[in-house]
Amino acid sequence: MQTDVKFILNRVVNILQDAGSVRWTADELVMWLNEAQVQTATLRPDATATKKEVSLPGGNYYTVDELLETTDLKALRFMRLIRNTSPESKLGVIRAGSMTAMDAILPTWRVVQPNANVVNYLTDPEDHLGFYVFPPVPTPDATVVPPVVGARVELMYSAIPLEIEYPGEGTTWQDITGTLTTETVFDTAIVDYILARAFSKDSEYGGNGSRAAAHFSNYQQALGYEAEGVMATKTQKKAPA
Known about the structure:
three-stranded antiparallel beta sheet, elongated
């Protein structure tokens, strides 16, 4: 379940005491909101976890993007394969495997006899969008007897959050429309991230630097991650005019 942006921003402006979007413009709030969603999905892929049944063409390596349709949310990271869904398969669950272990036990695992029933998926920690399957998937061929069928699986991936549109100059937070891509459970973290950015803008004023640090600490704790350095390494971006 996702949240309307006005619910998030109402909480933000109540704390900022800037209902007219005078000190913090509507475009700035949108910039930080979009940034918060992407940062949250990066640190917690489950924040935008998306399931989809897909067909695997013949082979043993795939990227999430190549399996999605143009209407699907774009992929940020592969998460896992859940189960086989093709009637020709055993409809079993697909378990995570170790490439290191497979290379040691069965060095030829990438080129064994293809099968429409996927048993394992394997990932490279440096390849966020790609994954291997074992055994390899056959290339469908309806011209032979019996016909060769491919594999269909249920895929889970972390999606890139949809950007909320900037309302433009002279608007207030009430002119901002849209729905978050991140799950509702992360709403409080999103609020804290925006507040951390907002108070950082005025960090030269008494107490605002401490408030920014406190809200970012709350954001970290809400995600369950020690994301130290993220705030410091990001440069303050200027909102579109």
